[in-house]
Specification:
Blueprint lengths: L1 H10 L7 E13 L3 E5 L4 E7 L1 E4 L11 E3 L2 E3 L4 E4 L7 E7 L19 E5 L8 E4 L5 E4 L5 E13 L1
Antiparallel strand pairs: 1-12, 2-9, 3-8, 4-7, 5-6, 10-11
Amino acid sequence: MWRLLVIIAFAGAPAYADITHKLQSSVQLTVDAAATNATRLGSSFSISGNGVDTTDGTTANTISAGTITQGVYAPGTISATQDTPGSSFSFSQSYTAGDAVPSAAPTVGAVPNFSSVISTTAGTAGDLAGTITSAGAVTVTAGGAGTTATGQHVSEITVR
């Protein structure tokens, strides 16, 4: 009988648990500003040859340093003469003109004349909106171009 009472006593004991309930809500609305990103291309010049004599037009066997105007390199005029007529030779030259350095900073909305330009217009809020109710219902309304709306509701239950 005593054993039966001990088993009934333990079977009827209440269970305890550590329970945590967390609610978190957020809405983020963003309207982008106008932006321009420009990358200026620099000048480059290369020349190579075998079996040729070069001249810049004034001095034989010379390659001029050229000139730089507004940050753009302009090589001198280079011509080549074959060392021994009828013999094998090679000669190559290449030149890429860089973008000129502007005399003043670009103004808002102006796009500089550079080789690589990415320009975006300013966002317009329009109907951009976001709400979260006490029940956790998330509502976001699209705005105009250049806007972002993000809403979230997190319900977390932890039982230990």
